[in-house]
């Protein structure tokens, strides 16, 4: 496995220079583009890494999975009264569908849906950001995981599009807390800094029937775990979820920081990272690495 | 397994009367609503059935999988120059997205995409309908599978929506053959009459790395098989693909005749049938039966 | 004329009870529904009134004309770099078109366009609300015209939809000032309280080549006046501008307070008011009164 | 007037070369681009011309006015059960709004609306094309007006977009006759060949309370005439109707053949022609000529 990971990184490294680092906020645009790392964490606790697997990066939309899991933990199926679990067929930040469908987001992994989940969590937690941070520290086994406040603040300064979505949902009665407060929390979650290793460990319960072995925590039930994975499979990669299923064949979730997590149910959790994105906003080299890995080992769930 | 199938049908039978048989053409509206059948076909050739598993019904959109497979057989990856493999987030017969995206359908399982596939096959086959019929006869092992011409003709009489889509794509240069001719063929494919048993056997190569044991035919490569399954998983149930993944967790494809096929990769092919549909156009009792079955045996791929 | 106005009000009064007072904010929902008034003001200074012509009401979107005129006064043609003067074909508060057209509103009389105009005025005036109030006091010759702060505050509390629009435009770079500040000003303009008489006098320059006789002010040039009238004619009545042109044949502007102003170029300015609205958000009895009046006197510009 | 027309043509002639002749069918693309003509026809029968005012060209969408007038003649207000008279805010050949609004076109001057009008006329006339031709011959006083069959046939060969619209409306039950037959008729109307003089005379009843003096025919009532003019004012120039009202201030109707007719109610009918179009599909030099003419004489109805 170790040799394979090294080989795969060598194979996809030439893609660096052909994508584009997220540049809608300066703090993200500054990240050196030539980084590439991968971590594979087995359900038995074995860890394989290659490249920049220990370098923390901004997890961005990968945090949407943590938020969703928190919401399922305290509210279960009730959350689906507020949003769906259907793919959207629209860019992640589109308002068009949201207006046509009366402020009900398609799924928790487009921005509108993640904002509703943040709104749900805001109603439940006294301190949503601390609550999330501690949750992620436990799951990753890394007590130093923290929010990069410079990034969170910069995202907030560029909040216009997300603010538009939140207010649009509020106008339909589907947003209950103060918009600015929820946005602050949402951006803090996105600005968590974690490495491939942190993330592979933090998401390992999704490959293991909901159980996180190193923290000893039954995070979700088996059934809930399959359901979260199913949403990742149909909606985890923005407007490229179908292509990811076609090429990689695993449930996954990406972030504009360049990270992608993929789940091999019953076996492994993979996290790959490279900052340059393709046109759909997913890590260019990351997608390629996962495709080769999945094909080489025959990991497609399909 | 046999006992379980009987039990599941008993459990979901009370749903009959709560859905609505497709009524956009008289020939479909006439089908008695109280029918319910299931067939499970193992990769080892073992067959389990319950209820009306041997009664032929109109396969409708399930034919879209056969058409796609034919197109992949002769044209491979080249077909993706004409359409995508992303979920659409729109009703199966919407023109909105088609116009916004310049006549390129999202995937081969919405009507627009299936029409493009039919157009591709029309350019390739001298007699596309015969070609399809013979293909399906071989795969199902049933030499009596035939087109119900009364249904095909009735569909053609009500072709307006599909004709609109085909002409819209033609206006974007993404439709090459005569619209009326392709529509005739498309409706003939939809009007194939097959039973749950026929369908479970005909689709069994999708559970078996592309190999159809009883016909001895390598229909697709392993990789292509995973790819077709991935498209079924993200786009196989109209605007309810996410819900099917969430509840059933298997690649599947439905038709408005009330049939649904689901694939348990490496193991089984399931076909369930009950004519009454839910609001999304999928068999109400069929969805429920597959959900119970998947949950009871733990068949989710996620 | 006096007799005709009385007769027309009698004729349309039976419509009261068949519409619906705007109820999205309590302060508007409280307005007694059975009020009906009309004022006709001639370019020669002659004034005719009937019914509740002296009762102040909330001018709401009629203020969009005043804001546009202010913006034209200080910025002229330059404002069209920020928005268009095309009818929208969408409800007044839709975000769909705004997103598809990159945050550029179709015209100054849909909410998004009026918000851009408010943003333009915010950049120009130290105190936009006072500036507007004084402008309207001069034009109407009524020094007591004032903002109803209870309504302005209530609108602000229900700002979600307008806030969504403003933030969406900001995300496209087409909104320069603080969203909350501009919204405050915008709602204050909408909450101006004026009577039919006040409004007929305040808008009379639009019937008189841009000259307001009683204030002695050349508000706009002849050409600019025609241009403002043209925008009222194609976009002044929300998604019913075409119907207003068809039935009344005059440039006009309505508000959800139930007021409608109509211009007979070269001759008269008419203001009619009745709080109950039709489905398009325009005064039901007001539209009917204007239709009869226009037809009886042959006032259509067409 | 004569001198003024010559002067205006000289002033706008430099625009030739900056637009683009319609090229979606070869027969239109072949028209020499450097032609420019204008005719002004007074209600008193006086005729002024300049440039290529006697050269016939393809009237294209200007025929939509004739079709509408025919439909009003035999069916009156009943036609509005099938379509609206609101501006569309969409390109002339868009299907998006048509689908969202259940197959009911916004107005008779977008293609979908004109097709519904053609469908209405098809139900009424034994020979719609002859009927239209004779109607136009009478109105223009030119017994040689004829359909250019080469253009009609070429349009039919490129019918995909219009066919898509017609079938979409049929799928909503808003199209009653055979699609191909109606399209044939529609394209024949568009392919009528007329000069500026022919058109100025043919449309003169719209400036004269519905009465065509030289044919002695009361084509429409005064009220109906105002209504047709109002629809031209709000929807006559595709997605540029607002701009035409803003710049020219007259009811008008354009065609992709490069012609534009404008009505000065009570006084004159103007027809200008130059084949090169702007981005909105309206004659570039024609728009400019009408703007100057309207401004110089102060003809804006607003």
Plain-language structure description:
The structure is a homotetramer of 302-residue chains. Chain A is an alpha+beta fold and 302 residues long. Chain A has a single domain, classed as DD-peptidase/beta-lactamase superfamily (Beta-lactamase), CATH 3.40.710. In chain A, 45% of the residues lie in helices and 14% in strands. The first copy, chain A, contains 13 helices and twelve strands. In chain A, a hairpin with a 4-residue loop joins strand 2 and strand 3. The first copy, chain A, is globular, with a radius of gyration of 18 Å. The two termini of chain A are 22 Å apart. The mean pLDDT of chain A is 96. Chains A, B, C, D: Keywords: Acetylation, Hydrolase. Chains A, B, C, D: This is Glutaminase.
Q: Biggest sheet of chain A, open or closed, and with what strands and sense? A: 5 strands, antiparallel
What shape does the CA trace of chain A take?
A: globular
SSE order of chain A, one letter for each helix or strand: HEHEEEHHHHEHHHEHEEHHEEEEH
Could you state the oligomeric state of the chains shown? homotetramer
What is the CA-based Rg of chain A, rounded? Answer: 18 Å
CATH architecture heading of chain A:
3-Layer(aba) Sandwich
Text of the CATH class of chain A: Alpha Beta
How do you describe this structure in short?
Four copies of one chain form a homotetramer. The first copy, chain A, has 302 residues and is α+β, with helices and mostly antiparallel strands.
What does the secondary structure layout of this molecule look like, with pairings?
4 copies of one chain form a homotetramer.
Chain A (H helix, E strand, L loop, with lengths): L1 H11 L7 E2 L4 H4 L7 E6 L4 E5 L5 E2 L4 H13 L20 H5 L10 H14 L3 H13 L5 E2 L1 H9 L2 H12 L7 H12 L1 E3 L1 H7 L8 E2 L4 E2 L3 H14 L5 H7 L4 E3 L4 E6 L3 E6 L2 E2 L6 H14 L5
Antiparallel strand pairs in A: 1-12, 2-3, 2-11, 4-6, 5-6, 7-8, 9-10, 10-11
Helix pairs in contact in A: 1-13, 3-5, 5-8, 5-9, 6-9, 6-10, 7-9, 11-12
